[in-house]
Amino acid sequence: MFESIHFESKGRRTTTASNPDVLAALREIVGDENVVVDPARVEPYGADAVKEKFPPEAVVFPSTTAEMVAILKLANVHLFPVTARGGGVGYTGGAVPVDGGIVIGTDRMNKIIEINVDDLYVVCQPGLTTFDVQTAVAEKGLMFAPDPASYKDSFIGGNIAENAGGMRTPKYGVTKHHVLGLEVVTATGDVIRTGGKTVKNVVGFDLTGLMCGSEGMLGIITEATLKLLPMPEATSTVRANFHSMEAACKVLTKFTPEGLLPMAMEVIDKYCVAAIEENFAFGLSKEAGAILLVGVDGSKEEVERNAVTIERIINENGGFDVIRARSKEEEDKLWDVRRAISPSLMKYGTLKINEDVVVPRSKVPELVARVEEIGKRHDTFVANFGHAGDGNIHVNFVVDRDDPAAIRRARECVAETFQLSVNLGGTISGEHGIGYVKSQYMHYAIDRPTLEIMKGIKRVFDPKGILNPGKMFI
Prior knowledge:
single chain; seven-stranded antiparallel sheet; Uridine Diphospho-n-acetylenolpyruvylglucosamine Reductase, domain 3; Alpha-Beta Plaits; alpha+beta; Uridine Diphospho-n-acetylenolpyruvylglucosamine Reductase, domain 2
């Protein structure tokens, strides 16, 4: 490692990324100013939202596919780990260099190459934020549907690598449903193109789908062709209080018999409500055991009709203090409550263990009720919120960082919650991925033969194991 970095990590392997010849070669590839080795500057690239630090030996910022190819070919010769990184806002350590080596920052690869209105696609580089892409295509009257909560910070490349979801998933699906094609540099420095610019494409294996959710372990995305949709004419949001989370979640299956497919269905428990209100004073009811947010989009007539139906269904099923936004400003304020949750929960402790289990939508009421029981049994505070419309609940166990016993109990809660989710027909992650944080639990959700096939795929794409080591498989 660099003499200026004195970092030791159990299991971290010796690398040659700090070899003067390697550093000189990296500077030759991307320019001296785009190779960072100063400890203070590389440290932020050694952590994500989990806050555990694994500083890399260097951070390198390529701007072209050719530069990416040269970096990976160099890594294959000198056998140092390479970890790709976008916005660095993940919750499972997917972009954290646990084995050292270099981090490749995609910040400079931030161009929109083409917006095609006739064929409904955008071609862009991976270093743009989701918000950047949404804003650019909105100017053409188009929509890029994936909408993760971190949309102003998360990069498109990272969204694809993690197969990010978001609040619009119930109607529009996750990121993979909006990726038509990719340019990818493999671990061996080869450039492959998957998919294309058409919605239909069954030529060969679906390598585009394989790359979505691969967490940077098979290759590094250098260009993406993304599917666009016409911008809906109108949107509307209804917010309602319920006396319990279970009551709020039971409403989720009431819309389908009415022929409704809401764009978004988000649920927030009473602990989240209290924390939000303390931090932001939105005027939320102290009587609310839970809040349900339901969003619809479409033509003006369709949105009005569906919003009225949603209000009726909520009122018939225990909702109270029902509010419907009558303007874009009012709608934004209703959704501000949802976006305020994560930072607000820190009032309950100094360490928040945020998991994102997912179950069939009809099982959400049972999931949240039994997770609360798990927390009580282990004397651990738990708060639940999330994308209830697609069964993806963010379970937050909050403890004090300086209390080892409390952390141990919280980890036991996590393991039980994962097993519960699988038993209910779901799995251990809906959108956060596996990284290194959840790798020990992979066997809960995936059997051994399937895991071995995945490991085989990894060996084909990355025979020397240089790309994002220490993730997913243990």
